[in-house]
Amino acid sequence: MNVFSDLGQGILAILTVQNLLLLGAGVLLGMVVGVMPGLGPSAGLAILLPLTFGLDPTGAIVMLAAVYYGAMYGGTITSVLINTPGESATVASTFDGYPLAQQGRAGPALVMAAVASFVAGTIGAVLISVAAPVTAAVATTFGPPELFLVVMAGLLTLIVIVQGNRLLGALSAVLGFAIATVGIDIGGGAQRYTFGSSELINGIDFIPVAIGLFGLGEVFHMLWKGGHLERLAYVSVRAKGRSFWPTRHDVRESRGPMLRGSVLGFAVGATPGAGATVASLMSYNLEKSVSRTPEKFGKGAMPGLVGPEAANNAASAGAMVPLLTLGIPGSASTAVLIGGFLMWGLQPGPLLMEQNPEFAWGLIASMYLGNAMLLVVNIFCIPAFASIARVPFRVLGPVVIVLCVLGTFTVNGSIIEVGIMLACGVLGFFMRRIGMSPAALVIALVLGPLAEETLRQTMIVSGGQLDIFWERTTSLVLLILIGCLLLLPVVAPRLSRLVRRRLRSVGEQRADSAEREPDEHKV
C-alpha cells in the first residue's frame, strides 16, 4: 500500500467545493459546541448527527470529524476565560489557563493553545497516515477470537484506567450490552425484549440513546447544579495590541511541551478506551515533573497549558486509528462517529481501507486541511467565540432540548424513539449523579453486537471449547494484555508507593550529605 499515493487521492477527494464547505462548517460548529459550557464533542456530535442525512458519506463524516476536533479547542476558550472546561478533556487546561487570564494574559494563552492544537493535530494526522495502514494490515489477520478480545480489552481500558469507580463503570458497560441485545437474536432469529413492538424488532437505534445520554442528560445535570442561576466570572480578551500575542519566551518554553504532548497524546488516544482526558492529565503531570520550575504550575505556567492542549488534540487524532482499522471506538465521541459510519452502510474495521479507500483516506486528508482552518479561525476569531461563552445557560438549555427532540424525530419519524431519547436523558442525569459512566454505556452499546457476533463465531469454530483463546498466538497475547489490565489497579498503587519511598530516601541522603559537607570543611 503506497501511503503517499493513497493520501494524495484522499486530498483530491476532499478538494471539492461541497466538501471544503462542509469541512469549514464542521470546524465552526465544533468551535461553537466546544465553547458552550455543558455540551462538548460527544453531545455536539450526537445532536448534529441528524443534520448530515442526505449528504454523501465522505462529506458527512468529514464534517462530523471536524466538529470532533474543533470542539476540543472550543472547550479551551471556556477553560481559560471562565475556568469552566467545555468537556472533560480540557479540565487540565484550567489549571494554568485561568491563572494566565487573571494575569491579563488571556490572549497569549489562547493563541499558544491554538498553535499547540494545530501542531498536535498535524503531527497526529501524519502519524495516522503511517500507523493506520500498518494496523489495518495486522488487523486483517485477526479472526473472531482476536476481535472479541480486542473489544473486551478496549472496554476494560475504559473501566480500569479512566473510570473513577470501577464497579460503576462495569455496571455502565453491562447496561450498554443489555440495551444492545434488544431486537432479533442473530443466532436463532427470535425476538428479544421487544415487548410486541414492531419498532423494536431491529433493536434500539444508537442515535436516540446518544442524544439522550449526552445532550439531554447534560442539560438536566446542569439544571440540577443551578447552571441557569450562575453568573460566570468572565475574563475579557481583546485581539488588538502586542499584549494579545505571545512573547518569544512563551514560544521558547512551549516547544518541548508541544512536541511531548503531541506524541504522548497520540499514543494514549490510539489505545482503545483511554481517550483525550487521560492524555491531557498525563501530559500535565509529565510537564510538571520535567520542568525546572514546577512551583509555577497552577499559578500561570504556559507549559502547563500548552502540553495538555497538544495532548488532547493529538489524542483525538490517535483515536481515529482503532476506529478506522479495528472498528473500536476509543472514546464516546468516536462511538458516535461509528454510529454515523453504520448509518451510511460503512463497516469500520480492517477491510475499510481496502474496500473504501477514498472514504478512509479522504477522512485522514481532511484532518490536514481541517487543522489549518482551525488555526486561522482560532487566532482571528477568538473574541467572537469568547463572546459565545457568555450566553447564559437559561437561554442555551431550552435550545438544546428542542434540538435534541427535533434531531431524534428527524431520523426515522418515530415517536417511540423520541420517548427512548427522553428516557435516556433521565438515565444520563442519574448516571452522572451517582458516578456511572455514560461513555462506557455508549461504547458498550456500539460494541455489543460485534462482541456477540464474534463470540458466537468463535464458539462455532471451536465447537464450544474455550481452548481456542490460548491456542492461537495473537489471542494469547491479547489475553495476557487483559490480565495485565485487570492486575493494574492492584499493582499500580504499590509501585507508586515504592517510587515515593525511593524518592524520599534519595532526598534524605542528599540532605544528609549537604549537612556533612560544611563540617568536613571546618575540620
Topology:
Elements: H1 3-14, H2 17-35, H3 41-48, H4 57-81, H5 91-102, H6 106-139, H7 144-162, H8 166-180, E1 183-184, E2 191-192, H9 206-224, H10 248-269, H11 275-290, H12 302-318, H13 320-325, H14 332-343, H15 352-355, H16 357-380, H17 382-388, H18 393-412, H19 415-434, H20 438-462, H21 468-471, H22 473-522
Antiparallel strand pairs: 1-2
Helix pairs in contact: 1-16, 2-4, 2-16, 3-4, 3-9, 3-14, 4-5, 4-6, 4-12, 4-14, 4-16, 5-6, 5-12, 6-10, 6-12, 6-16, 7-8, 7-20, 7-22, 8-20, 9-18, 9-19, 9-20, 10-11, 10-12, 11-12, 14-20, 18-19
Largest sheet: 2 strands, antiparallel
Return Rg in Å.
Answer: 24 Å
Low-pLDDT parts are none
> What's the overall average pLDDT, rounded?
78
Question: Number of helix segments?
Answer: 22
Q: Which geometry do the CA atoms define?
A: globular
In total, the number of domains comes to 1
Report how far apart the termini are: 74 Å
Side-by-side strand order of the widest sheet: 1-2
Strand content: under 5%
* Category by helix and strand content: mainly alpha
The number of strands is 2
Order of helices and strands: HHHHHHHHEEHHHHHHHHHHHHHH
Helix content: over 70%
